[in-house]
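Hi R.,

Here's the input for the arginine complex you asked about:
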Amino acid sequence: MNIQKYLKKKIQQICIKNGLKKNFDPLIKKNIKSNDIDYQINGIIKLKNTMPGSLYELAKKISCDMEKSNIYKKISVSKNGFINITLRSSWLCKHVNKMFISKNLNISKKKKKTIVIDYSSPNIAKNMHIGHLRSTILGDVTARVMEFLGHNVIKQNHIGDWGTPFGMLITQFQLKKPSINQSNDITYHDAYLNYKKDPFFASQVKKNIVKLQKKNKKCLKIWNILVQSTIKKNKLIYKKLNVSLTDKDIRGESYYHFMIPEIISDLKKKKIAIKYNKCTLVYLKKFTNRLGKKMGVIIKKKDGAFLYTTTDLACLKYRCETLHADRIIYYIDSRQKQHLLQVWDIAKQANYIPKKTILEHHSFGMILDKNKKPFKTRNGITIQLMDLLNESISRAKKIIIKKNNIISNKDINKISERIGIGSIKYFDLSKNRTLNYIFNWDQMLSLEGNTALYILYAYTRIQSIMNKGKLKYLCNKNKIKIFTNYERKLTFSILQFEKTLLMLEKYGTPHLMCNYLYDLAEKFSKFYENCSILSAKEKHIKASRMKLSSLTAKVIKKGLYLLGIKTVKKM
Ligand code: ARG
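And here is the predicted structure with arginine in place:
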């Protein structure tokens, strides 16, 4: 149930009936200020001059028609034309009861779209570091949300498995001749140092790049070993992070190689690309360089090599033509904005993007330390993602041991893993993705505030109610009813779930789900502290409250699932 959408439709119908504007957006806002008003209609001002009379009179006219419906308990109109709405509790109950019995929390069906999501996308022969956290988990939330809403989701892990770095990596491999188990020891970092200091090494690098591009068998074999060993290592991180990416989602840069020669000749034919100084170059329409002249981007170098931009261009064409994407969403950090815009610009000039396809860069900010510098180790080295996750787990373990003596050793490991990983993810996801944020272990693992622990704690409280109470109370015969304002607020919060999901669908902003879950958990705590549940005197009250608690747990669990966070039964 999306209440706002429902009310909007009702009001639009009233407007049409009264000969007012069609498709009028009444701007319905949830009211957080006053205790007994649920929503406020702010858009009457847009109807000004469509009818004689003041804004107040217009609003009054609409509100009179609204009063005929039985969903409102109270409607009031302010002097300047705002309409305040309080919904009938019985109407809220009707919908929350529907949600209780529905398998998918009564989320309405949507038109199915094909959505390509480009996320994680680390480079081969480099360890995943803290910089990969955001792309990986933000993209994964969007994939989960879109799947839950019934879309056809195509995840694409655009790994960096091609290009000039492989000349260095293959040369380093030939130098070190590692066994299969040691192939992870071949790092881009070491290869680069040799390349810089050893001219012979550097000359081999050049030869190997050409060989690899010509698909030389020996080079391809080494390339494959390097790619597979990095993938194997990254899989451990995905598993630990509870990220849904698998092998079948990998489509790295190398995949698009077969398309590139044709694209280059097509761009030349269409007079979009030109030869310049033995390179192939595209002039961009919307970009100018520092001198104010049209900006050129190289898509093929003098030595015949293709670039990151060229690959992304082919990749975009593939996503449109072969994957038939309706939406393509890139989770890449904000520093690559210009790169993406350039790729899109070329693709649009070349007519590779069908009208229906929407391109979106869901960019994100950086993770900083308390001095607002990029978060690094004490020695100034980039933090490895696996180290960060392990530290979070061990910190969570300490907290749990300190707080608890009922949990067995076996359970402690499982619970600390879930809480450690959940906390790190939640902390990140709860921040507006477009902004930088400051990493802080104490805030992240706090039981107070908008944290994973706070939400999980509410969840475990409900589990303990369910363990103590008789489950027969949850049967269909019993209904959720509202007896106090605490229950009303909790019910109202539960009914905001769909609206929240739709915001995530539209904008890819998981922090809104975190804010939502925080509100829900808070409303539950107030209800729990002020209303007797298991000790309620009358049976129908007890049943209603148990059902309300159980539904709250269902929504929390689903919300956390969509954030890629596992729940715990106790902590
Ligand atoms: N491998 C790139 C990097 O580590 C990210 C790739 C993002 N996706 C894309 N289609 N360019 O910076």
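One thing worth noting: The chain has a mean pLDDT of 93.

Cheers,
M.
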